[in-house]
Batch of 2 targets.
Target 1
Amino acid sequence: MTGREMSGPLPPAGCPVSDVDLWSDAVLTDPFPTYRALRDLGPVVWLSGPAMLAVPRFQPVRSILSDWQRFSSADGVAVGDGANRMMGESILTSDPPVHDRYRKPLMDQLSPNALAAMVPEVEATAVRFASAAVEAGRFDAVADLARPYSLTVVADLIGLPSEGREHYPALAERAFNVMGPANERSADGFAALLELRTRTNEACRAGQLAAGRRADQLCHMGRADLVGAYTWPGIDTTVNALGAAVALFARHPDQWARVRADRSLIPSAFNEVLRLHSPVHYFTRVATEPVDVEGVAIAEGSRVLVMYGSANRDERRFGDPDRFDVTRNPTEQLAFGRGVHLCVGINLARIEAHSLLAALADRVTRFEIDGADPSGPQWLVNNTLHGFEHLPVRVVAA
Ligand code: HEM
């Protein structure tokens, strides 16, 4: 055995090393000081815990995501080897041309044109949820607003039966844990992912899906496997973005006042929310050949942690990066990824978020975080997702 084999993989020459545990509860619930420290260390940092390279700055993250030929998803995009072996081939874990077979049917259903007809339905759902929240006066912006709203939009769009649909968000959230390193959370995530797949397949097999809606269409095309593209990554990502939006507007009432005064700022404001609180912390890629990333030699076969949330706070790209500014319109932010794996649900997520923010802007003059409520605010502890678990708020109605 060579010295290299005995000591496991080693950092590339000259690559800074960090022993931070990105998956500790403390870092997952408040990752931004750690992200900054990693960005300060260099464009590529060796994480000694998982023995893996991490890419915390904006420009290299953008380049890696744009370069599927040299940074492949085909060997999985999770941190842990177990998850990468277990998950098998999927839209997330394939490269072109195989990837096209997964992506094309979903693009056909999720393009702006394909979604145009359902915009009034989403807007009506947004009004219903915003009105109920305002009527309640005090509520949990995650449990009572973002989660049931996002679930309703996605479940109605694809035609999931009403019975049992309430189980999907919690299962999907737990399933996101499989994308992390092997730890207790990822072990639980495997069980959740299995149950999620079983539920989705069963609904398809038992003919419980609303006729003509998107899941039914996919099942009739023999693509029941793609229904999971809605029920897994399609709900909790948006939930976390919407929870973060309410928290930011509660903490920055001046920014909410600007949005209320000018609704054309809503798309820009949502980009800014995603930049500051990117719902996905990380996925990974594997280098298919030796690659130089800003002077660091990445060896063929190296797994690289792509840090979306850190890239979006990079001071090299965004001036005063921790400031929430609804007029900034950071269209280049990377919360939806980039390149061939750019989030296929991006149009749906935007319609959902813009509709809810507009409905709230019509009804709420001010959000206040309810510090007296014993349940929160509380950050989510998840290997992959970033956002709030609980966010008790009070609203002042318009
Ligand atoms: C704010 C909400 C959302 C965020 C922040 C988000 C984030 C992301 C990110 C970062 C990726 C890229 C993965 C990679 O680089 O490997 C992705 C891909 C994906 N997202 Fe989303 N997502 C959101 C909403 C949705 C929705 C509503 C759907 C439902 C249709 C969805 C379904 C997917 C799927 C199927 C992929 C895989 C695409 C591919 O690999 O080609 N996402 N998402």
Target 2
Amino acid sequence: MDINKLVVGISPTKKLYLDDPYLRESRATVIVSKQEKKNVYVILDESIYHPKGGGQPTDLGLFKGDGFNITLKKVMEVRGVLVHFGKLYGRLPQAGEEIDCILDWKRRNLIMRLHTAGHVLDYALKEVYGRVVDTLGALHGPPTAFTEYQGMPPTPEQIEVIQKRANEIVEDRREVKFVYVSRDELMMAVKDAPNIDRLPKAEKYRLVVIEGVNAIPCMGTHVKNTIEIGPIDVRKVEKTEKGFKLYYAVKEF
Ligand SMILES: [Zn+2]
């Protein structure tokens, strides 16, 4: 299936997780459904599922309707359109039909906690290095979470301080919120954000602000208070071609 063809002429999906990452269920209308053997591709008018990308692994979950169930295997984003791919049980839902969407919340909540921990670690690194450490990429797990940074890896002593500072911020119960800004406002507010050089051009940017800590342009899902992250454990540091990967974990509930 060429999913690039599937999204031709389709308006961008309304991404409900941007405004409310705690939304676990919704009712949405099918725009496109296409069966391929036992699997199906579904495009909805709006979605609670974050796609694979932007440093996050795909959300999973379930679609339910009269005479069918779909267990999601992957959500992809193509030109602003979310394409949900999963295994179909029963009949194929038709365009125009309303379906129930249920999010795999256990997985998503873990991703939200890991992702927010990533922002906290960015800050802890900045403190230890005395400057912003640019990021090259990230995967806020599961199964494993890491951020790749540019430059020299931290020493074992520095790693200890990074972990300690990160956990102090968690314990500080800092509020995590988001605001939308223009590119000019963005440049004034966060010209030293660790991912600023990797941002695609856009009219509006979403800034994720951890009060008193940092503001990072980001479209991912985060918890609303750092205390929800729980203890952050820096697992290992691995040297890469341009820098290093910092692997970390949070407790699984
Ligand atoms: Zn983020």
